[in-house]
Amino acid sequence: xxxxxxxxxxxxxxxxxxxxxxxxxxxxxxxxxxxxxxxxxxxxxxxxxxxxxxxxxxxxxxxxxxxxxxxxxxxxxxxxxxxxxxxxxxxxxxxxxxxxxxxxxxxxxxxxxxxxxxxxxxxxxxxxxxxxxxxxxxxxxxxxxxxxxxxxxxxxxxxxxxxxxxxxxxxxxxxxxxxxxxxxxxxxxxxxxxxxxxxxxxxxxxxxxxxxxxxxxxxxxxxxxxxxxxxxxxxxxxxxxxxxxxxxxxxxxxxxxxxxxxxxxxxxxxxxxxxxxxxxxxxxxxxxxxxxxxxxxxxxxxxxxxxxxxxxxxxxxxxxxxxxxxxxxxxxxxxxxxxxxxxxxxxxxxxxxxxxxxxxxxxxxxxxxxxxxxxxxxxxxxxxxxxxxxxxxxxxxxxxxxxxxxxxxxxxxxxxxxxxxxxxxxxxxxxxxxxxxxxxxxxxxx
Length: 446
Ligand code: SAH
Ligand code: SF4
Ligand code: F3S
Description:
By secondary structure, the chain is of the alpha/beta class. It folds into three domains: about 5-125, 3-Layer(aba) Sandwich (Rossmann fold); about 150-380, tm_1862 like domain (pyruvate-formate lyase- activating enzyme, Alpha-Beta Horseshoe), CATH 3.80.30; about 385-445, CATH 2.40.50.140. It is about 35% helix and about 25% strand. The chain contains 14 helices and 21 strands. The chain has helices spanning about 15-25, 50-70, 80-85, 90-95, 110-120, 165-170, 180-190, 215-225, 245-255, 270-275, 280-295, 315-325, 345-350, 355-380; strands at about 5-10, 30-35, 40-45, 75-80, 100, 125, 150, 155, 175, 195-200, 205-210, 215, 230-235, 260, 300-305, 330-335, 385-390, 400-405, 410-415, 420-430, 435-440. The strands form six sheets. Strands 2-1-3-4-5-6 form a six-stranded parallel sheet, sandwiched between helices. A five-stranded mixed barrel has the order 17-18-19-21-20. A three-stranded parallel sheet has the order 7-10-13. Helix 2 links the parallel strand 3 (about 40-45) and strand 4. Helix 8 runs parallel beside helix 9 (about 245-255) and helix 12 packs parallel to helix 14. It is globular and about 65 Å long. The protein starts with a strand and ends in a 5-residue tail after the last strand. The relative contact order is 0.08. FE3-S4 cluster binds next to helix 1 and helix 6.
């Protein structure tokens, strides 16, 4: 009887991609996936440490799994991913119900770790690697639509932003062999996928030597786009310090590279950016946005912002608001600063902005972004976009849902198209989150 694996994933898209690798590795070792925890032999939680509330969420889920294990003592519980890497053996000390702890670079070792656990021992592997990219593992896709998928192109991060736990839990930056990336993309296309998102914490620093020539991220993007004109290519995340004109030109020259850049600014104040060790200032960031507007006039822009970082004043906060207003982000993720143990900021700076001020500032930037998001959608009214259909809309089987190149969700009455089709849609209405429209013709590419 094959053993059953239940896996829950928290955190960023990289964790989602990693869980697909884990399911593949364990699948080759006799585990079948179940989406019902009740009949699982092995429960894995792929965890995130980016903010304290991300860890709290996981603790909450673990309580539930432990309760389940008390009634079903044969079930094994494993914590994998970033929290496993951060807390290591401590997870076993504080919690006797956890059997396995595996960090992000040790997934090839999971079959052995799980066997050890079945034999009654606690099993831990939190070694970080300088080479591991899981390049040869064929991930078991977890997307629901069979249209868009993530492809991991690099791991780790060398940037050392002072607030960030990622370099500690994911280790040093390393880039994956480009040929394995292209092969994976081709394989996805042949299975009907029509969109890939190249993933890394800082994709712009992708770099591999291939025989005599160096492959930069811009080159990799070009190679990916060249696999088929019917394939859309996205990427995330770009660090503002090294988003180059070369990359913007490649985006401009290739219609199938989506016109959307996620370019997290974190703060609009140069003083705070310096304390954050972001390695760019407000002027540099604005210059990069001007370059994006010049090379890619139709490009949408999204960002991440942190409020209440150490020493942030009202003036710093107003600079964030003014930069947002100037950049006119189409979308943004916004967070309150959460001190992470052992990071540069935790060691060197005081987390001195009171909680209620962090909250107030966060609410102000959320309110502003809501207005900007609506403005961005309103600007699309009357325009026509090519939409890649992902499936039925959540609310009704009479409507289809898909995305524009700019990554905006469009819902429109079904014209008989199916997931994976390109449809030309004229935008007639919008909400703050969604564009609404009508199909003009089923497939403009034929
Ligand atoms: N590599 C990406 C983002 C990684 S984490 C980048 O550099 O842009 C995603 C987002 O979480 C970050 O952009 C930042 O806005 C937020 N974040 C990271 N650490 C945080 C912390 N300690 N407190 C609050 N937000 C944080
Ligand atoms: Fe964290 Fe900075 Fe690396 Fe992004 S670039 S993962 S914020 S250290
Ligand atoms: Fe979280 Fe790890 Fe991603 S800390 S944001 S899951 S890299």
